[in-house]
């Protein structure tokens, strides 16, 4: 099946690499023009490197290679004015905005950082999503679709815990569940749908870094990727699945963005190999 979002325009935060780039390419392959928005510099609380300007340019180039138009914009989702300006550039360039992926997110397990870690993670993963929707929804019309990236961490009792950055990650993702329902109820009156996706571990840099490895294998001084794979797999109910791929989430994004999901709103889809089923009571 092709052309499911033909002629539409999608704005994707965190579009420089990882899940965001995957969403951009999948939507472009289905006919959408793309605006990729990304911070493109590192943050103190994040122990792994974030996307760079070159990464963002690569996303644009790969979209254009699919014969779709693309625009790369550097900016911070914590800054509402930056997102408002991005929406203005989107309308000026493409004349419309139909799909929004509020995807930008970070994880911080940096010990000793204190509340700075909380502020950067909650500011990006919760306030950043709210800013994205608050900037984009007024520019969308009936038939539009907004998709929020949640996390399986939202369902874990007590969250991923630990230092303030880890607590902020779970807090932000959990708050998004309620937020999506309420903003979906408001947007439905305009014919706009708002949904979310809860991924489990995903094969991106957010997962593959020393901070996450140490959290999954605290018994080892310097755990490697091979060391953590068995521990990663314990989260999922389906056997031998340490993580899912960005494309697995992108498939759900395209579904929610398309007319196939025209009557689905206020919902979260779990793309997690059954991880949430392990929490049944």
From TrEMBL:
Signal peptide range: none
Membrane-spanning residues: none
Alphabetical UniProt keywords: NAD, Oxidoreductase
Record-linked InterPro entries: NAD(P)-bd_dom_sf (IPR036291), SDR_fam (IPR002347), SDR_subfam_1 (IPR023985)
Pfam families the record matches: adh_short_C2
MF annotations from Gene Ontology: oxidoreductase activity, acting on the CH-OH group of donors, NAD or NADP as acceptor
Family to which this protein belongs: Belongs to the short-chain dehydrogenases/reductases (SDR) family.
Protein name: NAD(P)-dependent oxidoreductase
Lineage: Bacteria, Bacillati, Actinomycetota, Actinomycetes, Streptosporangiales
